[in-house]
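Appendix B. Raw example, untouched.
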Amino acid sequence: MDLKKAHAPVNTVTYNKTKIEEPTGNVYEAITIIAKRANQINGEIKKELIEKLEEFATYNDSLEEIFENKEQIEVSKFYEKLPKPHALAVEEWLEGKITYKQSK
């Protein structure tokens, strides 16, 4: 997932309920699918963030010495400014990018 190309809102947005439930016909089922996708996105973001932060990690045995790493701070600030996983999942849902199977 390319987070730089995401157009999801950073602030709270009110969505039209009928647009959310349109693909499934059931708002609760749609929200469940969106929530599962949001959890997947959150896992991907967390994994990517940890990998980037480990590139700048310095390991030492002394607990008294704490180093500020400006690169780590910049990476963290970038990820803090990103849209939240649920906003990204709703954007994908409304654009029809999420596939799902209905169980019967």
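End of appendix B.
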